[in-house]
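Recap from last week: sequence in, structure out.
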Amino acid sequence: MGDQASWREYTGQTAEDQAGMGWIDAIHPDDRQTFRTGWGQARERGTLWETRAGLWSEQHRGYRHVVFRVVPSTTPDGTVVEWIGAITDIEERWLAEERLRHADRMESVGRLAGGIAHEANNQMTVILGSAEFLGRSLKEEPARVDLEHIRRAARRTASITQQLLAFSRRQVLQPHVLDLNAVISALEPILQRALGEISQVKLRLAEDLHAVRADPGQLDQVLLNLALNARDAMPDGGTLTIQTVNATVDEAHATARAVEPVAPGKYVALVVTDSGIGMDRETRDHLFEPFFTTKPIGEGTGLGLATVYGIVKQSGGFVSVFSEPGHGTSFRIYLPVAAAGRESGSWVASGLAGGGHETVLVAEDEPAVRAILARALRKYGYTVLEARDGAQALALAQGGPAPPDIVIADVVMPGMAGKPLAEEVERRWPGTPVLFTSGYTGADAVSRGLLEEGREFLQKPIEPDTLAQHVRRILDARKAEIQR
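Predicted structure tokens:
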């Protein structure tokens, strides 16, 4: 099939290796049967044949995407005397096409998620807030159980939206410089419970690990999703090994097979390996696509690994997967090393929500959402002014005995929206903090010109305790700034 010398130079096969049908061993195992079938049909019909397949490249020490074209050479009476073949390496073109397809998928899912988030998260704020208030007053156990079912269902609905946003990289990250080993060690008991009693977690953590800058809550989500995936891949039990190591990505590695561009440099590698059933290439090729799942209907959303992918990419890293049927799976997550001079110190989780006596102005056009936010803040002792839009908010602030201590403004409101309201507040009462809220993500709000990057932002759905935490933190920071 073609020139033996060229074939040997590309694949590394000797003349003896190529003898008979031996040359087909250089084709990727997953493509061989389809290749044999197509090649056999072409010989029977004596027609031109073209196909794509993976072919081993000795130079690259891996399989490359190539196009095979074979044309029969015939005598005047139509008898085939020989076949003339050509092989074209299309790896770079395939990568470019795959990147374009991936970008299209990302944009489509992002638009879908953004639209869902805006509408659904407003309603989830009302449901979760109402459930919280009811939970504080209900005494009967059956009613409390029913209420907990409502709360869990609402949170699950909200989490599905968040997973879509994570995949499309439209969520709001809160990165900190942190020790990845500490994050893993703290989460180990939870990962062990997620795996179940018949499996175990083993840690192999590098002692001299560099710091990374990432969102600790999102890293927890990554590890938990991988643990749950491993549990399903080890139905009879097994071992989940979590390893960390410092790594350097050079130019050759960065451009080797990345669906998306990878920046060369120093990384911390998080390697999560299970001893499960493994995956074939078809499964690996679709692994990070949203809604792709090998589980039966009703047993998974197909968003777990898509979420992992989105979080890692939005954190500036990348993911590689190594798996073969019967030989387990290894996810290798690379996170860039934190730049020198950036925020220092270890990350500390937020404490409990605190109350206060300050005045809070809430501008929100959805009456039910506005009522929930106001009620939550009053429960914590704050004086609350409620406005249906920016214009009414300014009128309330102007008519009070003193300006509000903080303004909570929905990004999208009829008339005067959140951004112009904040600008007017700053003009009239310099230094008054503004906390923006929205059913849209912060990234979407910024891209639409509704919000300036870097502003205080809280994405819906908002639970009462979370709102109180943010308000208290902003007010305390403002006080500290004044005292300096």
